[in-house]
Amino acid sequence: MSPENSVGLVTPQRVRFDTPLTLKSGAVLPGFELAYESYGTLNADRSNAVLVCHALAGSHHVAGFYADDRENIGWWDNLVGPGKPLDTHRFFVIGVNNLGGCYGSTGPLSIKPETGKRYGADFPLVTVEDWVAAQARLADHLGIDTWAAVLGGSLGGMQALEWSLQFPDRIRHAMVIASAPKLSAQNIAFNEVARQAIISDPDFHGGHYAEHGVLPTRGLRLARMVGHITYLSDSQMAEKFGRQLRHGEHKFSYDVDFEIESYLRYQGNKFAAFFDANTYLMMTKALDYFDPAYAYAGHLPSALARAKARFFVASFSTDWRFAPARSREIVFALLQNGLRVVYAEIDCDAGHDSFLLDDQHYHALLRAYLENIAV
Question: Within the chain, which residues score under 50 in pLDDT?
Fold first, then answer.
């Protein structure tokens, strides 16, 4: 991987905050750590900082690779780097692992000071609002008063939207991609099925599986399989797998017959090998709870009246998890408040995962918008 198309070798960093953080639930974290990475250089007046927010299974590792694991490439490496749409020659880019994560930030895998054991299920539920509050602490630590932009896809887009509401004077541009102002009942239902798969695993032990020396691998594997189906489009699955048989003939058994079955099992097994089940439960609940309009009797324009940023909102034609209609809800609410919005509805057959992929039209739109952000 050459310097021309990658940020290259990166080193994760970690910072501790000892001032208590009161969560939306009312619980208080006496202190916490956040893992993060940075790419590019912060300019003299600190006006070129961009925060990239991750989705459900993401992390602070947005771009580049590690010295001891060059195959571990950042999840948005195709977007972030020298000469890429989010150009690190212009911008100082930050990726952070959210509270409750399992990649170095304080979460269920961390040691609870009072017991000397892992938090496990005792780690309090965190929300999108809590993540943004914690990210603001990181911005303070880095001396960043205002973000040039905050962007993310899916759950990351919800965080970008929340930044514009919780800290309207600290964000100039909010880029909300493949996201929604709140989950539909169907989406909450998918999340609940995934959670029940984990909770009903005999190895879950009420979330304290670490104390028993086991992992709820079967439940987490099934949860990921359910989730993964919703990230793909029907046309993409038909094109990649169709009804292809794994062994060229029907086996008349409950083992793998079709290639799509093999693919889902592979994705489930891979995910269950590195992700924490309690973190997965928490992330899905954060998705469910996000609803800025809740305190405004469901009226989204009233909820978004606090925003001052300029917005880029993008959706994808085959994304049925966060359909274009959900992005248009955000756009219309912003327009009712007289805010400046660029909206793109991109024709792409990859479903919800489109925001992670190399679609030329999508990347050209991102590049054009980002190039017009003054730094």
Answer: 1-3
